[in-house]
Structures are given as C-alpha cells and as structure tokens.
Amino acid sequence: MSTTAALPRVPGRRDEILGIAGELFAERGFTATTVREIADAAGILSGSLYHHFDSKEAMADELVREVLDRVLAAYRRIAAGALGPEPALRALVREAFGAIAADRATVALLVNEWNLFTQVPRFGYLRVLEQETERLWVGVLEHGAAVGVFRADLDARMLYRMLRDAIWVSVRWYRADGPVGPDQLADRYVDVLLTGVRSRP
Amino acid sequence: MSTTAALPRVPGRRDEILGIAGELFAERGFTATTVREIADAAGILSGSLYHHFDSKEAMADELVREVLDRVLAAYRRIAAGALGPEPALRALVREAFGAIAADRATVALLVNEWNLFTQVPRFGYLRVLEQETERLWVGVLEHGAAVGVFRADLDARMLYRMLRDAIWVSVRWYRADGPVGPDQLADRYVDVLLTGVRSRP
DNA sequence: GTCTATATTGAGATAGAC
DNA sequence: GTCTATCTCAATATAGAC
Predict the structure, then answer these.
(1) How far apart (Å, rounded) are the C-alpha atoms in residues B118 and B70?
(2) Could you report the per-residue pLDDT of A17-48, keeping only the tens digit for each?
(3) Count of CB atoms within 10 A of residue A10's CB?
(4) What is the 3-class SS of B47-106, one letter each residue?
(5) B93 in A contact zone (CB under 8 Å)
(6) Tens digit of each residue's pLDDT (9 = 90 or more) over B147-166
(7) Is the pTM of this model over 0.70?
(8) Nearest C-alpha in B relative to A171
(9) Closest Cα to residue B106, out of B120, B117, B93?
(10) CA separation for the pair A52, B186 (Å, rounded)
(11) Which parts of B1-55 fold into alpha helices (H)?
C-alpha cells in the first residue's frame, strides 16, 4: 500500500519540467522560449519533451489553468463569505498578491502574454474566468457602496480594473522574497485605495 | 520654394506603412505579426518593406521611440513647472492617458511587449527612459509630501509604480473614443488616488 | 518604390530505436 | 523516459530587375 500511497506532491519529472518551462516563459517570453531551451534546462533533448506534453502551448496552458483555478476559487469563497466590504476587499487583494508570491513565474507569463493567449482558441477560458472575476470584485465594491462603507459616487467597474491592473502588473517589479511581504504590499495598496494620499488635518 | 516647403506632416508612404504596422503589432502582438501581413495590409509585397525599413524590429523601435520621447518631454515640462503638487500630479496623469488616446496602438505595443523589448539590446533606452520617468514622478510625489499636501507616511516609489501600472495597462481595455475622454479618466484616477474610496461622514 | 525570386535559418513537432 | 534522426514549415531578409 505504500508505493501508490500518494498524490501528496512528489514533484515528479513532469512537474519538474513544467516548472522549468514556466521560469523560462516568464523570463524570456513564451514565443522567444524554444522547446530546445526548455529541454536543455531540463537536461534532456527537445524531442523527449513530447513524451510529457503535447506541445509548447499545452505547457503554458497547464501552468496558467492551475493558478487561475486556484485564485478564482479563493475569490469565490471570499465573495460568498460574510465579511464586511473592507475586509472582503482586503482579502481579495491579499489573495492576488499571494498568487504573485506563490506563482510568480506563471503570473508573469499570464500578464506578459495576455494579448497573445487571448487570441488563441485553446485559451478561450481566460476571458470567461476574467469576466467572473470582474463580477465578483465589482460585487464586493458595489455592496460596500450600497451599505455606505464606500463612496456612492464611484464607478465600481473602473475601480476594479484600475486595481486589478496595478496589482497584476506589479509582478514585473515586485519581489516577494524582499523586505516587503505580499500581505504587506496588499495592505499598502488597499490603504491607498481606501484613504487616498491627500493629507488631512 | 513650395515643393520642399514642408516637414509639416504630410503622411507619406513610409509613415503610412509604419502606422499600419503599429496597428497590427498592437492587435496581434509583435512576434505574431509577420512582415507579410504588414505588407499585405499596405498593399505591397514583403520584400518591398525593406526599401523603407531595415527590419521588423526597426519599425517597432521607431514607433516606440517617437511616442516615449514626446511623453517624457511633457513630463519634464510638468515636473519643472511651478505647479503645486496636486495640479502637477494631475497633469502627469493626464499626459499619460493623453498618450493612450493619441497613440493607442504604440502604447499597447509597448505594454504588451515590454518584457520582450527590454531584452533586446536595441531597446536598451527603454530602461533609461523609465528610470528618468520614475525620478520625475517620485519627485512630484515626494515634494507634495514635503510641503504637506500629500500624506508623509507614503512610499512614493510604490505609489508611482502602482499608478503607472494602472494607467498604462488600461490601454488593454480603455477606448478613448467612447463616452469617457482621456482627461476625464485621468481625473477619475487622480480623484481615487487623492481622496480614496472610503466614504466619510 | 515595388516586384520577382529566393536564400537562409530556426522553429515546433514526429517516428521509432533503445 | 530519453535519444537519434529528421521532417516540415514559416519566418525574416536579400539581390537585382523593372
């Protein structure tokens, strides 16, 4: 019973290769990364990659799907929970920066190749997931306005996109292993968003 | 004297082709756009492009340089001007959204291909321009904090990047020919940044 | 300034042996 | 699971005629 005991994350060759591919995609870009480079980095020949994956595209697909599914599931839990508007917003933002910290390479891949991927039929789910995400976040913002916690005169959709763009693109410069942790950065973003930068007497 | 009278923007074949290339780069991505597609869209054959430009890369280079030079020049004027911190910040943000409105395709190209371009030696100036831009914006924010207009406890560099990312990536969804003009959107972003979204009694 | 024709290269992917 | 060997294709770019 011990040999088949585990799904528990023994990385396995396949996942190892996938991780290597993800790092290269993030660093050099998806198109600019060749299957030969991936194979080299994994210590095998390019043809051998195709024992594990159908195509280069399939590798990126798998990376992106996994991260987005996890993030969206977390968003759903937060939006469905009984948190007040501010704690809910804070939890959403923390979740996003948490993903950047936990899956930096994949998030960078997604941010950098968004325009490319959204044109490939295989990645059609990206638009779908994005729409649900927008609904969830906008829901939290509008509810907050409805109960008087957030200003009533705000465009929730614009606000969501402004925040979303600021958060995700931070993957291009933010290092989670530096002095500022992801929750900390999340709180700073939320703080600015909530109270603004104008000094008050 | 009338034949050589003008630099005044007669488009000319070359600029026309460059504009077509820019639209395709923005829409399909730089790498995914082939010189044949550009040539097709311009109504010529791919080889003929090389009468006007050295390479596909050179086309993108020219597009990006022109826009960034113009934007940075405007930033310099604003930062050097005698505006107060809030009007200066507003002017900077308006300038950025103005560029998105005026040169949507080129800004999209730059945002989408940032990771690619910054790895190509030819585009080394991107990092340089970005650094000066950061200095200018951070200078405005820090001056504002020093004179008590902005909160003193803020991380100006983080704030700049947050705002920069939010502004530029909006090129992926914002349409300047829609109901909200660029100055209007700029003012909304600045409004949120200055006063926050928390409702106050 | 554009076309014809083509050189050249480098990519993703496949088949079958080991 | 990896290697050997190779196919196939599409891309950028060039040379010289018109």
Answers:
(1) 19
(2) 999 999 999 999 999 999 999 999 999 999 99
(3) 8
(4) HHHHHHCCCHHHHHHHHHHHHHHHHHHHHHHHHHCCCCHHHHHHHHHHHHHHHHHHCHHH
(5) no
(6) 999 999 999 999 999 999 99
(7) yes
(8) B165
(9) B117
(10) 48
(11) 12-28, 35-42, 46-52
Buried b vs exposed e over A36-49: b needs ≥16 C-beta within 10 Å? eebbeebeeeeeeb
Per-residue pLDDT reduced to its tens digit, A106-159? 999 999 999 999 999 999 999 999 999 999 999 999 999 999 999 999 999 999
| CA A60 / C1′ C13 distance in Å | 17
> A72-109 pLDDT, tens per residue?
999 999 999 999 999 999 999 999 999 999 999 999 99
Whether residue B97 contacts residue B14, with contact meaning beta carbons closer than 8 Å, is answered with no
Q: What is the DSSP letter of B2?
A: -
Nearest CA-CA distance, residue A10 and chain B, Å: 32
Please state, in angstroms and rounded to a whole number, the distance separating the CA atoms of residues A49 and A53: 6
Q: Which residue has the tokens 């997931």?
A: A129
Angle at CA of residue B22, ends B116 and A26, nearest 5°: 15
CA-based nearest distance A1→chain B, Å: 48
Collapsing DSSP states into helix, strand and coil, what is residue A72?
helix
Give me the DSSP letters along A153-191: T--HHHHHHHHHHHHHHGGGT--TTSSS-HHHHHHHHHH
Is A154–B192 a contact, with Cβ atoms under 8 angstroms apart? yes
